Amino acid sequence: MGSRTITLAINGMHCASCQAAIETALGDLPGISKVAVNVSARKAQVSYDPSRVGLAEMARTVAEVGYEVGEEELTLKVTGMTCASCASKIETAVGALDGIADVVVNVPAEMAKVRYYPGLGNPAEIRRAIRDLGYQVEERAEGQAALDREREARRRELRRQGFWMLVSWPLAFLIMAGTFRDYWILPRFVPEFLSSRLVLFLLTTPIVLGPGWQFFLNSFRGLKRGVTDMNLLYATGIGAAYLIGVVNTFWPAAGFGGEKAVFFESAALLTAFIILGKWLEALTRGRTSEAIRRLMALQPKIARVIRNGKEIEMPADEVLAEDLVLVRPGERIPVDGVVLEGYSAVDESMLTGESLPVEKKTGDTVIGGTMNKTGAFRFRATKVGKETALAQIIRLVEEAQASKAPIQKLADWVAGHFILGVHVLALSVFFFWFFVGYWRFFDPQSTFLLTPHALGEIGVFGFAILLSITVLVISCPCAVGMATPSAMMAGTGKGAEHGVLFKGADAIEATSKLDAIIFDKTGTLTRGEPSVTDVVSRLRPVPRSGAGEPRALRAGGPAGPEAESQEEVLRLAAIAEKHSEHPLGEAIVRGATERGLTVPDADRFNAIPGHGVEAEHEGRALLLGNRKLMRERGVDLASLLPQAETLEANGKTAMFLAVDGKAAGIIAVADTLKEHSAEAIARLHRLGLEVLMITGDNRRTAEAIAKQVGIDRVLAEVLPQDKAEEVKKLQAEGKRVAMVGDGINDAPALAQADVGMAIGSGTDIAKETGHVILIKEDLRDVVVALEVAKATMRKVKENLFWAFSYNVASIPIGAGLLYPFFKLVVSPELAALLMALSSVTVTLNTLLLRRFMPSLKREVAVASPAAGTTLDLAPAPAGAHNPGSSGRGPQ
Amino acid sequence: MDTTVDRRVTRVSALWYTGISLAVVALFLILARWVGGYSPAAIYGGAVWSFLLSMIVTMPVITAYVKRRARGEA
Questions:
Q1: Which end of chain A is more exposed for a tag (fewer CB within 10 A), N or C?
Q2: A47 contacts in B (CB within 8 Å)?
Q3: Which residue of B has its CA nearest to A418?
Q4: What tens digit of pLDDT does each residue of A477-531 get?
Q5: Helix (DSSP H) and strand (DSSP E) numbers for chain A
Q6: Is there a contact between A477 and A418 (Cβ–Cβ < 8 Å)?
């Protein structure tokens, strides 16, 4: 075997040691005779024996020593594919080219994604190889242009097959009428000349050479490159039926069954049914990718931009970052940006799944493609073109739709080997019926299933070839091949519709199999910033309201003297903290202003690091801080301690306020739960999942919040870098684990989990790690993701079941398994009808997924979030916990 | 792969798959003679159909195999 020399582009090299590492690693591989690495050129020249080592192995070895063989990706739109065998045909042909790392072809998405090694693989060659197989290929276009082209290509296919249907069906009916003229009431209506074999020949020939020609042409192109596909099955079936008809028409004594076995109706109806199947497929195939088309259709065409003080209309894709854009009510927002002026409500449901319009005011971000409802506003464009959230979502969904799920491997293997297998079977069936079956079982009175046509003088050859052709025609790898990708396309689209982006088909499959879900606490279950949750007052109640035992009030509780005295505590605390830069101080000031309290400046302010603050206001000495500070200043806290301990037991940070040296109250501050956290956890429990929380907080705080939110198991005091390790431990217990967290900070844990879910990415989708991206900051979308994934996988399994069942049942029947018992055979035309129906059934079953609605949306009344303790004052509905990082907590 | 290699692949693989298909036809003819009772037309038709199906089965398999080997040698 000869040696070959190639040049690989290597990324990540810095110095001579990198060079040595790569040379050693590659040199150790069997079959490599010479390696020369050039650090400056970042290239490695390798001489190797291709029979002993392949490019993929070299790339893997380079990756193992920490570098990367440079790859480029080419995404092509391929039209003209009809089923999985087309995908397999293209994958084989392109995979056989030099320098190809990977080829993935998705038939429903009409997409081919090719990774190749630059310098070795050649995009022009890749395109040519696909064109040579008889498909149309073009660079995958973005956005609206892709939408238009895709629609046009589908229309062209529909028009083409529609035209061939108009040709084939009327002729096929005439041929049927002529063939069966002697039966039933037909002699009264069908003229005699129509049953003439010559007329039937003249009627069948245009069908075979017109609509049927595409199958002969495509099979020839495939065979030339050593690949087979469904076209070959069609061509063999149609060609054989037609040729036997021709022979028996012009040379009836040749011994192929004679005048009674012309089979013209088989050739004609076979073609007509296959064309019908292709037309139906073109009609339904587009519907499975409707979600992506709907997303593409959201891209506005026109933007109203203010340049040089003038308002001008321009194409949305010409808007530049930093442009000032004006949006009026009822208009679609053209690009992403930040509102500078104006107020409105924006319908973001198409991107986030959020059903209620979102209020937008100065400083808020707006997403391109969403609909402005009520007011006009101006905004500064921040992301344009391919950088907008919508463009990123479209790209992500497209990539997910082009990927393959592990469950597809079996279907791919079957579809890939199906055609050859069926031909082998057809040959075996022919041999069996020619040498054994005909002699033992044939009955001249037997008929085709569902027709009165007796097989009569068909003869041994005619009978054996008939069953052989039926096997070729009845088998349908299309249904097997389409079962998984069509459902995955619909599933990823359905997820996107509800603000859940699956990064690949494997993510859907993994999500559907989860046993446990770990939630990161800060920023995921909680808001990630402290806020005031409770106020306890020991100040004397306002005289008009009478006396009473001081106690804490919850937000929105009854107004009264106690509430007013607590407001006073909060106001005084806020005055003391007004100039503080500490997060807890900021939370107190924010808490006071949110409740409408006026917070004047203190006359004097002094921060006591690690303890609190002291201030003076209108002659009153204010002291706010932890126990230690109060002890040092001799403040007696005895009356407040029981309530402080209760608050701390609930994971809150209690800060004491003293006025003029006397204990005046407690302000409790905590990181509050997000609005829907508890509801999401409850729903996950209902789905039978184990729910865990992971946090760096101490166990008491962590357990307090876990209790409020309803979580079963807490992984507390885990450092950020150890979170991935905790995920690994759970996986070691045999559980399939999802991690829900911040896509950036929790990246290692998200990557380690079977499914990493990054939540609340908003418009920064491209930055997110993880397998599933939840656009909104709504934890209930985790449930939506699970439900969509489960529904999709259910559909995949149903499709595979139907597809395999069809083939398992139909092929033996087509091969004549029932003939010895019932004397019935399936005619090739009935076989063609069944075959067409099987793939259409799979597609229609997938389309049922369009009706899927997550349980959340189905339920009219949304369960209210879990209530906190009676002490809760926070605007957030659920509980709270200790931020933990403060040096001002209880000491 | 250059055209010389392509031509060689085409030639070598054609030789192999045609040979195998002819072997299947030979098997068919032997069986037909052994079983007996067939008209010449049935025998010729059967031989042609067996040859056609054998070619369809062997052509892609053999071509891909020979191409893989040729890529290794190129």
A1: N
A2: none
A3: B57
A4: 767 777 887 888 888 888 888 888 888 888 999 999 999 999 988 778 888 778 8
A5: 30, 33
A6: yes
Catalytic choice (A347, A520, A534, A746)? A520
The answer to whether residue A603 is catalytic is no
Q: Do A225 and B72 touch (CB under 8 A)?
A: no
Within 402-461 of A, beta carbons closer than 8 Å to B belong to: 420, 423-424, 426-427, 430-431, 434-435, 439, 459-461
| Short-list A854, A828, A870, CA closest to A643 | A870
For chain B, how many residues are written?
A: 74
Give the 3-state secondary structure of residue A521.
helix
State the residue for tokens 């020593």.
A65
pLDDT tens-digit series, residues A436-465: 999 899 888 887 776 666 677 778 888 898
**What are the two backbone dihedrals, phi and then psi, of residue A840, each rounded to the nearest 5 degrees?**
-70, -35
Question: Which tokens belong to A243?
Answer: 């040729």
The per-residue pLDDT for A196 is 86
pLDDT recorded at residue A226: 60
pLDDT at A131: 85
Low-confidence ranges of chain A (pLDDT < 50): 542-558, 860-891
Answer whether A434 sits within 8 Å of B46, measured CB to CB: yes
For residue A192, the 8-state DSSP code is: G
Chain B contact present for A125, CB below 8 A: no
Neighbour tally for A768: CB within 10 Å: 26
pLDDT at A264: 85
Nearest Cα residue in chain B from A99: B1
Identify whether the C-beta of residue A775 lies closer than 8 Å to the C-beta of residue A501.
Answer: yes
- Whole-angstrom Cα distance, residue A299 to residue A816? 55
One-letter amino acid identity for A316?
A: A
User: Comparing C-alpha atoms, which of A789, A792, A231, A278 is closest to residue A485?
Assistant: A792
Global pTM value? 0.68
Tens of pLDDT along A652-708? 888 899 998 888 999 988 888 888 889 999 999 999 999 999 987 778 778 888 888
Residues A764, A104, A421, CA angle at the centre, nearest 5°?
Answer: 150
Helix (H) or strand (E) holding A881: strand A880-881
- Cα A697 from Cα A579, distance rounded (Å): 28
Residue A291 CA: distances (Å) to CA of A254, A487, A510, A799, A840: 58, 12, 22, 20, 20
Query: Residue A873's pLDDT is what?
Result: 32
